[in-house]
Amino acid sequence: MDSAVRRRLEDQARMLAIGHVVVGLMVSGIGLLFSIYIPIGIAALAGWIPLSGNVESPYSETFFGLAFLLSGLFVVTLSGAMAVASFIAARCFRTLRHRTFLVIVQFLHLLHQPFGTVLGVFGLVYLMQAEVQQLFAEVASERRAVA
Known about the structure:
147 residues, mainly alpha, elongated
């Protein structure tokens, strides 16, 4: 592979790595906003939040508390996992390793509108190029030769 083409592809991978760090920070920040649901759910389960209305059922506070607690835990866990996957993908782009993992993360980024969608499309277009596949193979063979 020509050195100018390789440098261009490595620069594009570096820009995608920066994008993954930014999107990872955004996903984790937005996910942490949902952490407020967890103490609200705990407070409702403990009975510290009185529910207004004419609801006589003892299950209403329990259902309300569990709904808030579980949804908060779910969103925080899911966004944390996606942020970690995005940070790992940034590292993989910097080192030009684990192309299959990168493709999977790009498909998952398509769900995060609008920035994740743009990053996912650019990442998939980049990773599907024959030159990039060749670059990943060359880097892998260079690593095997050194080891």
